[in-house]
Amino acid sequence: VSAENHCIDAYYYNKTGDASVYVEYKSGLSPTPSSGGELWQAKFYDNTEFKEPAVFEREDALISFDWGEANPAPNVPKDYFGIHWSKCVVLEERYYTFSASSSSYLLILVDGNEVLKTSNGGSDSVDYYVSAENHCIDAYYYDKTDDASVYVEYK
User: Fold this and answer.
1) pLDDT at position 38, please?
2) What residues contact residue 70 under an 8 Å CB cut-off, 6+ apart?
3) pTM score
4) 54-60, Cβ contacts within 8 angstroms, sequence gap of 24 or more
């Protein structure tokens, strides 16, 4: 985070029963690095076809989320939503292990080539060889109903 004023919002809603919420802010901590050292550019859609316009955008250090039955971001419904993460990074020439799990559909592409796909949830990993140069990695996730979760890593 840059050295300037920033707004921090915390939203909480409880409809029934006992409830509690805890929010903590710690100054001076280093950000959590992502796999590959670059931030993922995340675009959130209110549909499962990734139809523009995106209704919310942000940067994520990691793709590791378990939203349960909550919505994943402002203006995004709790069901029937899609998220497209992308980043371009310089990789060294070697095999990388791509690991992923999701509650629904997940597709991982490297330079437009399919590396890993889960259509009905579950988890998988695959070794994928890349040359020493800049590569663009895309992860497409959508959720239709029930709990939503997604995890992507490469190393």
Assistant:
1) 84
2) 78
3) 0.76
4) 54/84, 60/34, 60/85
